[in-house]
Design goal:
The protein contains 4 helices and 4 strands, in the order E-H-H-E-H-E-H-E. By secondary structure, the chain is of the alpha+beta class. It has a single domain, classed as 2-Layer Sandwich (Alpha-Beta Plaits), CATH 3.30.70. The longest helix has 14 residues, at 20-33. It comes from Brunnivagina elsteri CCALA 953. This is DUF2488 domain-containing protein.
Length: 108
């Protein structure tokens, strides 16, 4: 199993109100320059929120929502500090209730 960390917010906030696309493009460019494998993904309506243990979190986030999911906890902490009004957390996958944490990926 892999531990995934996430930042969760409304799609409107992440994709329209914040200059967030630029942040992800810059991070992607940096990873390519450093020859580092991409370890984060932008996901609309993340499937992991459908797991029974995630219903409380899903209820706290305006819908439709979007998430940045990463295996890099420090990146998620940095995003939380930069964006402020987001929900953060973590989950293990694949698991009995979370099989496809990266479904509905958004291309940058």
């Amino acid at each position: 199993m892999t531990t995934y960390y996430y930042v969760l917010a409304s799609q409107r906030f992440l994709l329209e109100e914040e200059p967030f696309e630029e942040v992800l493009k810059e991070r992607t460019r940096y990873y390519h320059e450093q020859e580092k494998e991409i370890d984060f993904w932008l996901v609309k309506q993340p499937a992991f929120l459908e797991a029974p243990q995630m219903q409380t979190i899903k209820g706290k986030c305006p819908q439709p929502c979007a998430a940045v999911i990463s295996t890099n906890q420090q990146f998620i902490i940095w995003l939380k500090l930069r964006l402020e009004y987001v929900i953060t957390g973590e989950f293990e996958a694949p698991s009995e209730s979370i099989t496809e944490p990266l479904a509905s990926l958004v291309s940058l």
